[in-house]
Amino acid sequence: MKTYDLIIIGAGPAGITASVYAARKKLDVLVISLDVGGQAAWSGDIENYTGYQFITGPELAQKFQEHMLKYGTLLKENEEVLELSQAGQLIRLKTNKGDYQARSVIIASGKKSRELNVAGEKEFKNRGLTYCATCDGPLFAGKDVAIIGGGNSALDAALGLIKIARHIYIINHSLGLSGDAIMIRKVQEAANVTILNNFSVTEVLGDKFVKSIKIKSANQEKELAVQGVFVEIGLIPNSVFAQGVKKNSENEIIIDAHNQTNIAGIFAAGDVTDVPQKQIIIAAGEGSKAVLSAFHYLSQKDFN
Amino acid sequence: MSKSVKVYGTSTCPWCVRAKQFLKENNIEFENLDVSGDQLAADEMMAKTGQMGVPVIDIDGEIIVGFDKEKIKIALGL
């Protein structure tokens, strides 16, 4: 089996930036990822990535990809890492398509949408229930929809849907909305939005497509007729495969200031880690930092 | 003879953009249907697939939901 200097898991802002730095350090590098662009590709408008006063998520993801591929970097797309283990000084990876080994690894696998875990959720996924308001929102023109959640991503979904959907219910399990004040005000001022605080979803119902949801508060239960359900209740790290790597209570990988995990040779970067603040530009910076640390590690160790 | 290819998608969905880009890179001609502005296309897509996720790629009647590069390659004989 071929031994790479470095395998980067994930091709979001952290993984792609890492790949660019790795290529420039002339490391023998492989990138393995389910997708390219990560969460950045799903973002709407981005106005805080230095150098771009305004760019959309898909456009920025495209620029990232072009930058990575400019160096001829080997990319395995649509491939998911299932297991990670140590074999002497090397790190072994098992994916849904094959086995790999490397002298060092950077985990930059990001985060994914948290699921509701209620009856009907799996059944109606893509049949009215979606985790990507940016992608699927336009399909709900003139329809009644529910957004589940009360933070910035829920508000972002609401602002996108106000002009598209007929009526929007925001189902928020806490006392009040918790996003940015400007966004909250815009949502509250919209004529076609009903905010239901202190309510949670208990079931998604329908036949071929979603027809309603059941919601409940401390003292009442009701059914809302909706054709669309947008789940926006936060994110969880893609860290399950990283057995043996220390994580915090949120399952984020614990790293030190040099992106080193508790296992020698395994580094991590971006949203999958416990780095404070999850931002595209922070993930990108962390990706470069992780490679420089990995490079230092490789040059100090005596590998055969 | 070249195959008839239709892509059902929205302008905002990143996988739709990538699917169309992939087809262009491989010099495959396709019909682009924006289901956000075209209710008929949206109904057609839902009837074909029984679901609302985009993109949907129709290659000579073979329906692929999502940007599944491998399946698309096989369907196109690439």
Written account of the structure:
The complex is a heterodimer of chains A (304) and B (78). By secondary structure, chain A is of the alpha/beta class. Chain A folds into 2 domains: 3-112 and 235-300, FAD/NAD(P)-binding domain, CATH 3.50.50.60; 129-231, FAD/NAD(P)-binding domain (3-Layer(bba) Sandwich), CATH 3.50.50. Chain A has 7 helices and 19 strands. Chain A has helices at residues 13-24, 38-42, 57-69, 133-136, 152-161, 181-189, 280-300; strands at residues 3-9, 29-33, 45-46, 55-56, 74-77, 81-87, 90-95, 99-107, 111-113, 129-130, 144-148, 167-172, 193-197, 200-206, 210-216, 221-225, 228-231, 235-237, 266-268. In chain A, the strands form 5 sheets. In chain A, strands 1, 2, 5, 6, 7, 8 and 19 form a 7-stranded mixed sheet that branches. A 5-stranded parallel sheet of chain A has the order 10-17-11-12-13, with helices on one face. In chain A, strand 12 (167-172), helix 6 (181-189) and strand 13 form a beta-alpha-beta unit. The radius of gyration of chain A is 21 Å and the shape is elongated. In chain A, 43% of the residues are buried. The mean pLDDT of chain A is 94. By secondary structure, chain B is an alpha+beta fold. Chain B has one domain: Glutaredoxin (3-Layer(aba) Sandwich). Chain B is built from 3 helices and 4 strands. Chain B has helices at 14-25, 39-49, 69-76; strands at 5-9, 31-34, 56-59, 62-65. Chain B is globular. Chain B starts with a strand and ends with a helix. Chain A binds chain B through residues 36-37, 41-42, 44, 57-58, 61-62, 77-78, 125-128, 130, 132, 134-139, 141, 208-209, and chain B through 10-18, 35-37, 39, 42, 46, 50-54, 65, 68-70.
